C-alpha cells in the first residue's frame, strides 16, 4: 500500500505541475500580439511555447485533488485521492455558481449605470435614441442584445420589447423597467428622464438591500466553514496526542466504517446548513 500511495502521489503531482505550466501563456501571447495595436513578432523561446505541446489551464477545482495528496501520503492510503477526485466536480459546480452570481451582480450594476447615463444624456439635451445608443455602448449593460436594442431604437422598432428580451438575462431585470419607462414616454408623453431617475433610485436601493443581507449572512457562512473544518481539527488533535488517527481510519475495518458514516453525516450537515443560509439570501 505504501508503494501504491507514493506512486499515485508522484503521478498526481506530476500531472498538476504539467497542467499548471500552461497557465497564463495564452493571455501573455495575446498581450504581446495586441499591445498598443501593433503587430509583434513572437519568438517561441521568449514565450516558452514549443510546437506540439498542448496548453491546458489548471482549474481551481483541481486543487481538491492536490489537497488530498497530503492525507494520502500521511495515511499511506488511496482513499483520500478517491475522495478528492469525487470532490472535483462538486467544487467545480460550486465555483461556477459563484461565478454566475458575480456575473449577475456585475450586470445589475451595469443596468444601474445605463439608467444614469441615459438620464445624463437626456439632461444634456440629447434625443432618447441617441442617449440610449451612447449609454448602451459605454456601459455594456445590454450584452448580446445590444445590437437588437440599438437597431430597434434607431430604425423605429419596438424598443420596449427589445429591452424586455434583454431583461431575461440574469441580473438584467431592471431593463424591463427601462422598457416600461420608454413605452410610457412614447405613448403618453411622460418625461423619460424623470421615470429613469426613479427607476435608478429603486435599483440602487435593491442593490444596497442585497448587500446588507449578504453582510448579515456572512456570520452564518463563517459558521458553516467552521463546521467543515472541525473534523480536520479533530484529526490534527489526535495526531498531536500520538493516536495516529489516519492509520486507524484508513487501515482498520472499524475506522473505514467510521470514516464512511462520519463523511456522510458531515456532507449532509454541510448541505443542510448551506441550504438554510442560501434560502435566507433569496429575495
Question: Tags for this entry?
Answer:
mainly alpha; transmembrane helix; 283 residues; Type II secretion system protein GspF domain-containing protein
Word description of this protein:
It is found in: Cell membrane. Residues 117-236 form the Type II secretion system protein GspF domain. It is a multi-pass membrane protein. The protein is mainly α. It has a domain at 107-205. It has 12 helices and no strands. It has helices spanning 2-20, 25-34, 44-47, 63-75, 79-123, 128-139, 146-154, 159-166, 174-188, 192-240, 245-251, 253-281. The chain is elongated.
- Helix/strand/pairing category: mainly alpha
Overall form: elongated
Largest sheet: none
Mean pLDDT over the full residue set: 79
Strand percentage lies at under 5%
Radius of gyration: 27 Å
Detail the poorly predicted runs: 16-52
Order of helices and strands: HHHHHHHHHHHH
> What is the CA–CA distance across the termini?
52 Å
Number of strands: 0
Helix content bin: over 70%
* Number of separate helices: 12
Main location: membrane
Domain Type II secretion system protein GspF: 117-236
Transmembrane segments: 6-23, 220-242, 254-273
InterPro entries: T2SS_GspF_dom
